[in-house]
Amino acid sequence: MSDKANSESDVKETVTEERPLKIESVLPVKTVSIESVKEGHTDTMSPHRRIFKWFARRPTTTTRLAILGSVLPPEVEDEQLLRWMCVGPKENIETSIEEYVLNKHATKDDRDGSIEEHFGYEYTHRRLPSESEIEDIHETVRSHWDGELPLILDPTAGGGTIPLEALRYGFPTVSNELNPVAWLLNKVILEFAPTHGSLESDVRKWMSRISESVEQELSEFFPKRNGVEPNHYFRAYSIDCPSCGKPLPISNRWWFNKRLSAAVRPYLDEEENLRFEAIKVPEEVSTDEFDPDEGTVEGGDVTCPHCNVVTERTDVVEIFKEGKFDYELCGVRYTEKIDGTQYHSPTDEDREAVRKAKDKIDSDLELATLLTQDRYIGYYDRSEPYGIEQWRDLYSPRQLLSHAAYLQAFNDIKPDILGNYSDEKGEAVLTLLSFISVKMINRNSRLEPIKLNFGSPNSMLGNNNFSFQWHFGESNLMSGTFSYETEAKNILDHYEEVVRYVSHTDPESATVQRGDAADLPQSDNSVGSVVVDPPYGDSIMYAEVADAFYVWFREYLRDIYPSAFSSPETNKEDEAVENPVIVSEESGSSTADAARKRYEEKMSGIFSEAHRVLETGGCLTIYFTDKEVSAWDSLTMSIIQSGFDITATHTITTEMPQRIGVKGDAAADTTLLLTCRKPIDNRSEREPTLWRDIQEETRIAAREKANELYNSNHNLTKTDMIISAFGPTLRTFTQNYPVVDDKDNPVRPKEALREARAAVTKVIIERELSGDLEAVDPLTTWYVLSWLVYDREDIPYDEARQLGMGVGVEIDDVKYDSKIWGKSKKTLLLKGQNHRVQDYTELEAGEDYRKRAFGVNPQDTSFDYNIDAVHAALNVLDTKGSDFVWNWIQDRDLQNKPGFLKTIQSLHQVLPNSHPDKKLIVDLLSGETGELLDADVETLSKANNGGTTRTTLEDF
Q1: What angle do CA 40, 44, 45 make, to 5 degrees?
Q2: How far apart are CA 883 and CA 135, in angstroms?
Q3: Which of 27, 125, 591, 699 is surrounded by the most beta carbons within 10 Å?
Q4: How many other C-beta atoms can be found within 10 angstroms of the C-beta atom of residue 8?
């Protein structure tokens, strides 16, 4: 029993029968997928996602499905559900909404105008059901929930999409978030917007005073040219060359704006001072004379342009760590063209302004001590080795001076703001003002490169980590693309749009709380539905990257929100992520294993708390997008240990493929909605289930899901199809938990996931390849499947290993002898014949000194694996020609070995056209060798080009 206090009104009656829910029935997931991907573009996403950066964002349509599905009865028809979700036109369609949307999606490439015009209705987040429809929803829900509207809780609210949509639909809503930056964003959209409404005029009133103060403070440091203001600068570094002693300019490229041919070129003047000139390439200077693509840095090593001596990365790192470098001003971009161009060489006045800014930083006591606290250095930090150890080190002196000027101006007017408004409204105005200033750091630090084709700074945290940049963009915050006024317009426009989104809501309906999701203030059995998008393993270190904003918010708002911004940095101890740094001192296991175990425990704590606050029979709906089996295993164990059963799963395409900034390949293009129930029965009283009794059942569940997805034309990658089968497999597993083997040892969910992978893989083979791979050995099967499933040579190691286990091969055991794969960090690299087979002509010449470097000898008369025989044949064809390989095949009787031909046929189907082995395979299957092998080239060509390659939904 929890020690949380329960009031009489909070305690629910004992539930003896689960309340059926829509989310546990068939859902219109294809339609929702199309809508979700439509919203994936930056300029079409919900406005709350554009007020301030957060690192994980879910589309509105999927969120509405999760929320409404978790409270509505299953009798609600899909057509009605889609209308309540605001999908499809309101009227004048002759088909169902689902048919209409699918038809519009199928014809989108032939459209005229925008996506919205083509589909005939606005993006979902811009629409809301009418007042009468909201009443209908509430009436339907109340009748299903004993006359009440259930409380909806998001315990890890992040950017706030889930609680915002719950609030817009009029449900009592709780947003909980550990991180103060995300909490502050939730406070803005869920409290300030519905309570205070429009704040633009108030904020702009005080902005003008801030701008006036900053203008007086900073104008001398950003000199105009012919009355035109600068807006961006190309900044780089220099060191004294350890070899020749001359100033060595450092950058990995010299393009300022490649699209406009604008570049900067370093040179030494007569006094051997390092200078830079703005040039146009190739209009003014040919690439033979100067190629801006060729900087002085390659792989971290730096080559001196004066003496051509290379300073190795380790020495460069040490030089930067000791601070023995200079900031260089390489080029200036102006708001308007001067003499026909916007890009100009820096002048003596420009260089003097930079020097004066540094002098001011060094001489002013407050500036010299601003943000001097040491940074938390995370496992994936890529800037600390270069001396970026304190938060102030993220900025050049003039950048730091600029940000400090806005902070000082803000603090100067803070008492006046608090004196002019009520406490709550004053907080709201101050918070929005702080958002404007803090948002500017994302485009004005040493960690953001210059956009190659735009000539402006990119995002500092574009990769969701701290990556050192060899050159960086510097912004004049008083003017241009990322100025104070520009960021203010961006924030205020989107805040005002959110105000319109929530203008109909009751401000008392939403509660925003800050704290650990494993220790909620809610009473037992007080929540109807928990909808959560949890953190995924080591995908993003939220607290670590949010620190960049947190330390500035702390400077701005520490006295306004003292409990939220009391600590120097964010809370990482209570964060549910796989953080190797937190567990680095633990012994007895690898750091990775310890981090995984800790993450599993943290997630169990969160789900256990959800279990406590949920009504008996209550519903927990979880978003999950991680691809790694280990993450799924941890998630499922967390769910099981918390007392939940998985009762339903739904596959939805929600993400733009190839998203930037998510570590490795962990982020899938699909989201699975996992619905879990707080079971009425006591799981501790269940008899254990033998694994062998449900092993086949898990395999059947996965196979049925794979066939269902194929038949639905759901546009999934093969990887995501495997992930989609995890859901029903885990449903079978959790509902039979606890599961034990024949020796009464506990069985973990990963065993069920292996069955799922093997079953789906078999379906993929049947559907995608001509026939099966029964005549092919396990290693060859694994190689073919790796190409079939991933369609590239670099794949996540853990995924490749699991795929091998599914077909009966331990890939680690064959790596050394076969040389069939290599590894780079967590990525496995599939090897082709040119990396595996020793050149036949070298062997003929007696050059066998490199034998150990290869896994296959083409002179062998027999081979352990079909893939070895095929790769050897390709090498012989490539080096000796078709006549020779014809005899080579006959000498080994390979034409009569089914596995040999099947491997060639399969590789013909799965290898991309760009792969060097593909052309050799085509040649092998053609002409006399093709006749010898009795290859049906026409059938293979049809299979290879007959539409089995699926597209994704991102093409808008």
Answers
A1: 65
A2: 79
A3: 125
A4: 5
The pTM assigned to this predicted structure is 0.84
Question: Residue 189 gets which letter from DSSP?
Answer: I
State the Cα–Cα distance between residues 834 and 839, nearest whole angstrom: 8
Tokens of 45: 């996403």
Q: Which residues contact 153 (CB under 8 A, 6 or more apart)?
A: 173, 174, 176, 520, 522, 527, 529, 530, 531, 610, 613
CA distance 229 to 227: 7
Hey, which residues does 667 pair with through a beta bridge?
626
pLDDT of residue 627: 64
| Type and span of the H or E element at 547 | helix 542-557
Contact between 602 and 155 (Cβ < 8 Å): no
Distance, in Å, from the CA atom of 782 to the CA atom of 911, rounded to the nearest integer, reads 14
User: How does pLDDT run across 616-672, given as a tens digit for each residue?
Assistant: 878 999 988 766 777 778 888 888 888 888 888 888 876 544 333 333 333 335 788
Per the prediction, the chain carries an average pLDDT of 89
Dihedral angle of Cα 462, 466, 471, 474, to the nearest 10 degrees? 70
Please report the pLDDT score of residue 5 as a whole number: 38
Residue 848 in this model has a pLDDT that exceeds 70: no
**Percent of all residues in the chain with a pLDDT value above 90, rounded to a whole number:** 67
Q: Are 639 and 693 in contact (CB under 8 A)?
A: no
pLDDT score, position 952: 31
Please state, in angstroms and rounded to a whole number, the distance separating the CA atoms of residues 768 and 906. Answer: 10
Is the distance from CB of 256 to CB of 455 less than 8 angstroms? yes
Q: Are 299 and 317 in contact (CB under 8 A)?
A: no
Distance CA 175, CA 497 (A): 20
- Answer for the pair 79, 97: CB distance below 8 angstroms, yes or no: yes
Rounded distance between C-alpha atoms, residue 497 and residue 543, angstroms:
28
169: its two tokens: 């639909």
Calpha distance 644→636 (Å, rounded): 9
Q: pLDDT for 273-305, tens place per residue?
A: 999 999 999 999 999 999 999 999 999 999 999
Contact 833/917 with Cβ under 8 angstroms? yes
Structure tokens at 886: 């014809």
**Does residue 206 contact residue 417 with C-beta atoms inside 8 Å?**
yes
pLDDT tens by residue, 397-428: 999 999 999 999 999 999 999 999 999 999 99
Strand-pair partners of 693: none
Question: How remote is the C-alpha of 37 from its chain's centroid?
Answer: 15
The angle that helices 718-735 and 749-768 make with each other, rounded to 10 degrees, is: 140
The answer, yes or no, to whether residue 682 has pLDDT greater than 70, is no
206 pLDDT tier (thresholds 50, 70, 90): very high
Q: For residue 263, is pLDDT > 50?
A: yes
For 603, the token pair is 């997630």
For residues 529 and 618, give the distance between their C-alpha atoms in angstroms, rounded to a whole number: 6
> Residues 169, 546: contact at Cβ < 8 Å?
no
Element (H, E) at 818: helix 811-818
The whole-angstrom separation of Cα 100 and Cα 97 is: 5
Which residues are CB-neighbours of 243 under 8 A, at least 6 positions away? Answer: 304, 307, 309, 311
Which pLDDT belongs to residue 357? 98
Both tokens assigned to 671: 């989201």
pLDDT of residue 17: 64
Q: Is the pLDDT of residue 578 over 90?
A: no
Residue whose token pair is 């003596």: 348
| Complete domains list, the chain, with CATH | 22-191+507-537+576-680 (3.40.50.150), 226-346 (no CATH), 686-767 (no CATH), 769-945 (no CATH)
CB distance 471 to 234 below 8 Å: yes
E strands in 789-842: 794-796, 821-824, 827-830
Q: Which of 148, 153, 233, 150 is nearest to 521 (CA)?
A: 153
Q: What is the pLDDT of residues 360-375, one digit of tens each?
A: 999 999 999 999 999 9
Provide the phi-psi class of 88: left if phi over 0, else alpha when psi is between -120 and 50, else beta. Answer: left
